[in-house]
Amino acid sequence: MAKRILLAQVALVGGAALVLLAKEMPGLVREVRIWRMAGFRAGGRHPR
């Protein structure tokens, strides 16, 4: 019984996370495009 409740809770939290991710995806894609246009690359800056 407890295992079934735990599985239901995991499914509920996972579903909520997926909905949130799907809702935020267009904004995240836009942010990535802005960062690319600005020229920020991982490890691309050289310290002076």
Summary, kept brief:
This protein is mainly α. Helices cover 77% and strands 0% of the residues.
Order of helices and strands: H
Distance between the termini: 62 Å
Structural class: mainly alpha
* Share of helix, binned: over 70%
Shape: rod-shaped
Major sheet size, sense and barrel closure: none
Structure description:
- The N and C termini lie far apart (about 60 Å).
- This protein has one helix and no strands.
- The protein has one helix spanning about 1-40.
- It has about 50 residues and is an all-alpha fold.
- Helix content is about 75%, strand content about 0%.
Q: Features of this protein?
A:
48 residues
Please specify the SSE layout and strand pairing.
Layout: H1 2-38
